Amino acid sequence: MPVNALLLTLNDSLEQRKSALEQLSNHSQIEVGQLEDRWLPVVAESNNTKNSHELHEWIEQLPGVNFVDIVFASVS
Amino acid sequence: MSSIERRDFLKISAMAAATSIAKAKAGVAPTQHGQTIQGIHWDKAPCRFCGTGCHVKVGTKDGKVVAIAGHEDAEVNKGLLCVKGYHVGGILYGEDRLTEPMLRKNGKLEPISWDEAIEVIAKRIYEKPKEFAIYGSGQWTIPEGYAAQKFMRAGLSNNHLEPNARLCMASAVTGFISTYGVDEPAGCYDDLDEADVIILWGNNPAEMHPVLFSRIVDRRSRGEKVTIIDIGTRRTRSTEFADHYMNFKPQTDLAIANCIAHYLVENDLYDKEFVSKHCNFRIDVDDETRDLMGRPSTFEEYKENLKTYTFEYTSELSGIPEEQLKILAETFADKELKITSLWCMGMNQHFRGTAINRLVHGIHLLSGHFGTPGNAPTSLTGQPSACGTAREVGTLCHTLPGGRLIAKESDRSDCEDRWNVERGRINPQIGYHTVKMWEKFCTPADKGGDISTIFVQVTNPGHTLPNLAKLFTAKEGLDDKFLIVSEVYPTATTKLADLVLPAALWVEKGGIYGNSERRTQQWFKQVEPPGQAREDAWMTIAIARKLFEMGHPGMKDKNGDFLFTVKDEQGEVVPIWDYDHYHDINTDKALYEEYRPFSHMKHKHVAPYDVLVKSQGLRWPVVEQKDGTFRETRFRFSEFDDPFVEKGKGIQFYHSVTKDDKALIWFCPYEDPEESPDEEFPTWLCTGRVLEHWHSGSMTMRVEQLRNAMPGAYVEMNPQDAEKQGLNNGDQARVISRRGEMILPVWINGRASPPEGTVFVPFFDETKLINDVTIDAHCPVSKEPDYKKCAVRVEKFHPDAQPEQPLP
Q: What is the top-level taxon of the source organism (chain A) (predicted)?
């Protein structure tokens, strides 16, 4: 049951940022932290490794998200 | 604690970690660490894997590592980690950890006590001290490597001591030493933040040093322009981010480097002022002799030798179009650009590894792209302490601590004095290098095999040596050959071990590592090792003590005291050889502080232990300031930053081979490799790593997430080559060389889209040992084998036609 903290680097488009934030906030497995400049901390809670990868990929493809860096991982 | 509570703890900690990194990146607030938050205690450690030297925060609770976070205060990684790094905690908890010493009896490993194990080893050494060897690694901590160093040189007068770093960075060492007179890069990772152009010489940092690569690519997201030129024999994930990809035929990088130099010289575009002030010229003694220092040369001779390497000739030889070669040469000719070259195994694991290292240094010196931020030729290392332990402590068969050489009498005497042993204790004859050591071990005694016992610590040679049938598995069945292996998990090496010792891993012990950019990093023990697993440094000291008790004269210093005598603040001897007392004192600190003064001779002043405790690592030379603080050095040999450069010198190569503060620009010719594709074996084989696994996979394959992401090795093929052999994705193929063969599933294109006539196989998978196939021929100067090119034949495997070869 992985718990990962991700650091998202958002792009400069305010519209895309807003959309990305909305979609992230509405996702039941994602907790969104406070945006600091272009960097958004989020915590992703998944059921298994496969689900964790799917979540990661989903976030990566969101318009407005430039990079996804993993900064914390629970040790199962 | 219920699982829900645990998850809540983890989620709170996870958000705290991510928020603190976001704040740090945004420059909002300083971060805090080294404390207990929500029941999880956080401490620091460098990552256990590659040579990048990322700092992680280790979260422990109830005696276990429960979480890992990137360290936001770490300059190397600024809070980020790669996929391996954030799973590093999982390496401690594989189900098959080795937990007790085991001795092979009647073909089977059976548990014995530590006392018995130490006695068995001591007796083997006592009986045949000259036939004993230690084979360690760039994963040794500095105190572990130093203990092995002192035990062998001062204790046993035996130089058969090698790290596996011989297999990964020995060519970088000979390149640095023969160019600057002293080892290790002048630049550092700060160059990656400043360079206009990054040149990857057979290098794939997107997979091998991902945090460094994201540091480069991240600059683009900030609107900075950074050009990446990828010079490689196969496309990689790094290529996806490159502005120029230049595909060359294996080995021809030598010609490419010479071509750049030729263009600069012929067109009068080299940096005359830099060259005249700071450089001399050097060449091999003759067409046969390839040694470390060659003979002096002149600019005129250099220019004459380069004449062969026209764009036309080099293009024909290398396969790189002339237009691309011009781009490369013109880049070096542009003095306004800041250029950083990066390389790792592509240049080091090379039949002419020393030569290509010298040549890349040479074009930076020739063009003046050296010594200012962003201008640097920088080798990266593959292991966490290849620099700190193998190179700085000097655990190679010809080296002593701090850049001293066994062959040099004054260096030996200096070490003997520092160790308080009588003059002449250190054997003046250098030991066997890695390939030779294992060859001797795998040769019967009556046929000249004069190594009978090898003690392996912190590495897996049964998996990673080249040409395994010759250098490892040939040991099986040989009388009087005894293999001792300290390990954390069963491996290809423990399969043939006669004695297996369970080892503590990473934060189960304290340690100090030295990374690729001269940064020394310290950490404390944070959890207990499982069962009877113990520290490698303790094993060495315990063996030494047993020999001392047996009356071995080498284990005493001039006063008759034990070689590893450690005293507490009251001056009382702490019996650290007795494991019950090993932790009564900080043995790591005692060994490190004994070693530290050795680092001064070559101006590699490593920081004091207590200073390292308070930092996320410091880059040597670390020099004390008037106010008592310690200052690190980012740019070596440059007056604006290096305290050892004399005022007014600008650039000063103060360990110059020619004793005139100048570096050497070498001419080294293109030479054919030891083995090239032919009719029988028509394909080039290149081996290497993948993002998900580190080295032989003995740690990362125990982490479910990493194992699932990349469960097994494969052979990566060009579609045309596959079609010719009737191979499709997932088919089994035989990869056959003159030395052996391996059966692997086919992955067409794979991650790298290999050019026609080439295949790639990753080496992490112990069920598919590609080193049964690789070649043991090596660079004549560095003695580093070439894992990047040998000739193979690939054909479809028909399981009904013949049985699969049994795996070693």
A: Bacteria
Tell me which H or E stretch contains B264: helix B253-266
At what angle are helices B536-550 and B142-150 packed, to 10 degrees?
Answer: 20
Contact (Cβ atoms closer than 8 angstroms) between residue B234 and residue B686: yes
* Residue B31 predicted with pLDDT over 50: no
How many other CB atoms are found less than 10 A from the CB of residue B322? 14
Q: Are B704 and A5 within 8 A, CB to CB?
A: no
Q: Which two tokens stand for residue B357?
A: 């290292």
**What b/e readout covers B600-633, taking b as 16+ CB neighbours within 10 angstroms?**
eebbbbbbbbebbeebbbbbbbbbeeeeeebebb
Q: Is B83 on the interface with A (CB under 8 A)?
A: yes
Under 8 Å CB pairs connecting chains A and B tally to 119
Q: Containing H/E element for B717?
A: strand B715-717
Chain A residue closest in CA terms to B23: A36
Domain that holds residue A35: 3-73
Report domain B683-796's class: mainly beta
pLDDT at B225 over 60: yes
Facing A36 at nearest CB: one of B11, B26, B704: B26
Q: Which CATH architecture has domain B175-380?
A: 3-Layer(aba) Sandwich (3.40)
Tens digits of residue pLDDT in B2-12: 555 667 767 87
Which residues does residue B43 pair with via DSSP β-bridges, in sequence order?
A: B58
Tell me the C-alpha to C-alpha distance, in Å, between residue B546 and each of B134, B211, B320: 17, 44, 60
Contact A41 B15 (CB under 8 A): yes
Whether omega for the bond prior to residue B755 falls within 30 degrees of 0, making it cis, is no
Of B87, B704, B709, the CB nearest to A73: B87
Instruction: Dump pLDDT digits (tens) for B774-783.
Output: 999 999 999 9
Segment B716-770, tens digit of pLDDT: 999 999 999 999 999 999 999 999 999 999 999 998 889 999 999 999 999 999 9
Architecture of domain B102-168+388-505+533-560: 3-Layer(aba) Sandwich (3.40)
Are B19 and A34 in contact (CB < 8 Å)? yes
Rg (CA), chain A: 12
d(CA B339, CA B375): 5
> Number of structural domains, chain A?
1
Instruction: Give B30's pLDDT tier (boundaries 50, 70, 90).
Output: very low
Q: Looking at the complex, does the CB of residue A49 fall below 8 Å from at least one CB of chain B?
A: yes
Computed from CA positions of residues B561, B563, B569, B572, in that sequence, does the dihedral angle turn out positive or negative?
negative
DSSP B106-120: TTEEEE--HHHHHHH
- Out of B15, B89, B214, name the one closest to residue A5 (CB): B15
Note whether A70 contacts B86, CB cutoff 8 Å: yes
B395 burial class (0-12, 13-18, 19+ CB within 10 angstroms)? Answer: buried
The DSSP code for B770 is G
Top CATH class, B3-81: mainly beta
pLDDT at B806 over 50: no
CATH of residue A45: 3.30.70.920
- Check CB contact under 8 Å for A71 and B93: no
* 8-state DSSP, B575: -
ipTM: 0.92
| Domain spans of chain B, in order of start | 3-81, 102-168+388-505+533-560, 175-380, 683-796
What pLDDT, on a 0 to 100 scale, did the predictor assign at position B63?
95
Distance CA B356, CA B350 (A): 8
Place of tokens 């958004």: A40
Q: Give A-chain residues touching B68 at CB under 8 angstroms.
A: 72-73, 75
